[in-house]
Amino acid sequence: MILFIKLLLAHLIGDFMLQPTRWVIHKEANKVKSKYLYFHTLVHFLLVILLLWDIGYWKLALVISVSHFTIDLLKLYASNWIKKNSVLFFIDQAFHIIVLYICAYNSNLVEHTVALFQHVNWALVTAVVFVTYPAAVVMGKLLEGFSDQIQIDHKSLPNAGKYIGIIERLFVLLFIIIGRWEVIGLLITAKSVFRFNDLKESNNRKLTEYILIGTLLSFGIAILTGFVFITMRGGL
């Protein structure tokens, strides 16, 4: 485990702290001809050696740095087909972490992976997944009759309300699981304060009622999910 953690730390430092924006821009413009692509690869090699503090790991560092170079290069050329940088970013990071995992547990990769899946708390995974998009869909259906009566604010960010709801439900679920109910009250208060000025300026009673219903429904779904998870965990 400590080996994987050190490799991950080296990756985080190399990719986010020791990679200036001008390097990124130069790589995107020049791709394989960019000198910074090679500098970036060398940085990762040196970081692995430094954090492991053992020159005997040079082969491991070489494998990681070469794979990092390959993945970054593929990402640069994939940008011609995939226009969303966020999608490329997460795919790129996922492949980097998979390589680090394989390198850290190469001696017992299959056994460790099987054991890892055997220890997954599937009830928790299900609860987390439910309070994200499935709960958003459920809320959309329940509020469908009200949403038709609300004038859309074109100044709002696209889907901002949905993502705010997902994040708040994840927080509520977390606080219930760790038994910190008082923090949920603070979360409700914080959201009310942020919403107060908007509702005051709009002077729209229907919008106020709609947001209130949506907020209570969102928190209610998260709390109910938390109760179900705790009940299931107690029965396991």
Automatic annotation (TrEMBL):
It comes from the Bacteria. The chain crosses the membrane at residues 36-53, 87-107, 119-139, 170-190, 210-230. Keywords: Membrane, Transmembrane, Transmembrane helix. InterPro entries: Phage_phiKZ_Orf197. This is DUF3307 domain-containing protein. It comes from Sediminicola luteus.
